[in-house]
Amino acid sequence: EAGVVQSPRYKIIEKKQPVAFWCNPISGHNTLYWYLQNLGQGPELLIRYENEEAVDDSQLPKDRFSAERLKGVDSTLKIQPAELGDSAVYLCASSYLSWDSSYNEQFFGPGTRLTVL
Amino acid sequence: GDSVTQMEGPVTLSEEAFLTINCTYTATGYPSLFWYVQYPGEGLQLLLKATKADDKGSNKGFEATYRKETTSFHLEKGSVQVSDSAVYFCALSAYGNKLVFGAGTILRVKS
Known about the structure:
The complex is a heterodimer of chains A (about 120) and B (about 110). Chain A has no helices and eleven strands. By secondary structure, chain A is mainly β. In chain A, the strands form two sheets. In chain A, strands 2, 4, 5, 6, 9, 10 and 11 form a seven-stranded mixed sheet that branches. In chain A, strands 1-3-8-7 form a four-stranded antiparallel sheet, with no helix packed on it. Chain A is globular, with a radius of gyration of 14 Å. Chain B has strands spanning about 5, 10-15, 20, 25, 30-40, 45-50, 55-60, 60-65, 75, 85-95, 100, 105-110. In chain B, a hairpin with a 2-residue loop joins β7 (about 55-60) and β8. The interface of A and B includes residues 43 and 104 of A.
C-alpha cells in the first residue's frame, strides 16, 4: 500500500516568492493534516481537513498561508509571499477518522524541506 | 494549553546498552500518549501508544507505560541496536485527534 506522498521533497526560493506544496494521502483516508516542523522542534499542526472541510485552521497564518483540499483527496498548501522565517519542513499526514474510535493513527509523509533565501 | 516535554539530546549509546528517554506531559482531561520515530530521510512513524492510565505500549523491543500520577510516558529499550538511531518524538492527543509533539530526542547508537 502506498504511503502519504508529498512533493517536492526540497524547495529553495527567494523571499517574497510564492511556493506551493502538494500532498496525496493514503487511499481511503478522510482526514488530512498539514504540520510545520522547525529545526530541532516537533511538528506543529497548521490545518486539519475532514473530507473537504477545514475543521481546525486556528494555527494557520492566514495572511500568507492558504490551503485547499478539493474533492476531499489531494491537498495543496501555499505560502505567498514567503519570508525567511518560513524555512522549515512541511509535513502532511492522513488518517481514517471513525467516530467509534478514540484515536485514529496518523500516517506521515516524508515532508517538504523549504529553504527561503 | 497541552504540552509535552522530553529530554534533550543527543543521546549517544553503545550497542546493547539500555535506553531511557524521558517524557512528561501537561494536558486537560485524559489524553492518549504516543511515541513516534523518524529515521533519516523518512517520515514520522508511530512506534507505540497508550490510551489510558497504566497501559503499556510496546513495539520492536521498545516499551512505555502511561503514568497518570507522574504525568509521564518514558520510552525504554533493554538493548539498543545501531539501526535504532533516529529521532524520537513523544506526543499526546487530548481531543479532536490533534497531536501535540515534544521537541524530539536524537538517539545515536555506536557499534
